[in-house]
Amino acid sequence: MSVQKPTTSKSKQTTVQRLSAPYIRSLKGASPIVSLTAYHAHTARIIDPYVDFMLVGDSLGMVMHGFDSTVPVPLDLMIMHGAAVVRGSSRALVVVDMPFGSYEESKELAFRNAARIMKETGCGAVKLEGGSYMAETIQYLTERGIPVMGHIGLTPQSVNTMGGFKTQGRVKEEWAAIEKDAKDIDKAGVFAMVVEGVAEPLAAKLTKLVIAPTIGIGASKECDGQILVLEDMLGLSPWVPKFVKEFGQIGAAIEGAVELYAEEVRNRTFPSEAETYKMLTKDPKAKPENKPVSKPTKTKKRPASS
């Protein structure tokens, strides 16, 4: 098992090797779990030292590809982004979402697609949405060597049956079904579960109810850990839900940089001499001249006079 060694600044973590699903499970009640989404190698490299796991979420369909929901995201797209995140990171566990339609039909289909994700990306676990009705599939996968993270509460892939992105468990009458979902997937073997968009008292109860750590997103600090969409917390998204705190304003910084670039191009101050290549005074590919080496002439000694 990897051992985390916290440094004295920036909450940065260093480890001996990449973290695993069993390690994340072991953090239950021991240390708050930190997680963010990641969709490509560059941002994965930046966040890698600070998070315990990064999720290649199917939210990339909305964040990066302009879809209205996560439903249209294909398996091949998840694999492409998942492989990039694995290449860009070296420490945090990488979890890849199974997209809509890739696991619901049967546990056998789920295994084939989950195995493909792990083989082609090199990730350490997969995540799938759903409660009690997915318990049999989760058990089937875990028994065959695939670590599974669950996802209950507000499940974005079910947006069409839920009637939108609606907070769950804000009335007590909804609690029983969500509690059963949590207990059933916990028993089936998930190493952790995302709890999304639920009221704080329910999140607290779920966290105490299950053995696996709960990872909250819009589910209060009562969960064992937290996850946010990276672009949301950086201020890159045009609209964010109530539960998001913007820890940076990168969007404004990008806009300012692009505005300055456009201005300098139009007034011809960029590129300047500093960004321009000059002619060389000598061809760097030219072979050095081979000058003949002059040999010293030998002087004949005069015979000694008799």
Structure, described:
With 306 residues, the chain is of the alpha/beta class. Helices cover 34% and strands 13% of the residues. It has 11 helices and 10 strands. The chain has an 8-stranded parallel barrel, surrounded by 5 helices. Helix 2 (41-47) packs across helix 4, helix 5 (107-121) packs across helix 6 and helix 8 (175-188) runs parallel beside helix 9. It starts with a strand and ends in a 40-residue tail after the last helix.
Largest sheet: 8 strands, parallel, barrel
CATH topology of the largest domain: TIM Barrel
Q: What is the SS-derived class?
A: alpha/beta
Unreliable segments (pLDDT under 50, ≥5 consecutive)? Answer: 1-9
Report Rg.
29 Å
Secondary structure tally: strands = 10
Q: Helical amount among residues, as a percent range?
A: 25-40%
Number of domains: 2
- This entry's quaternary arrangement is single chain
Q: What's the CATH class of the largest domain, please? A: Alpha Beta
Tally the helices: 11
In short:
With about 300 residues, the chain is α/β, with parallel strands linked by helices.
What labels describe this entry?
two-stranded antiparallel ribbon; TIM Barrel; 2 domains; 306 residues; alpha/beta
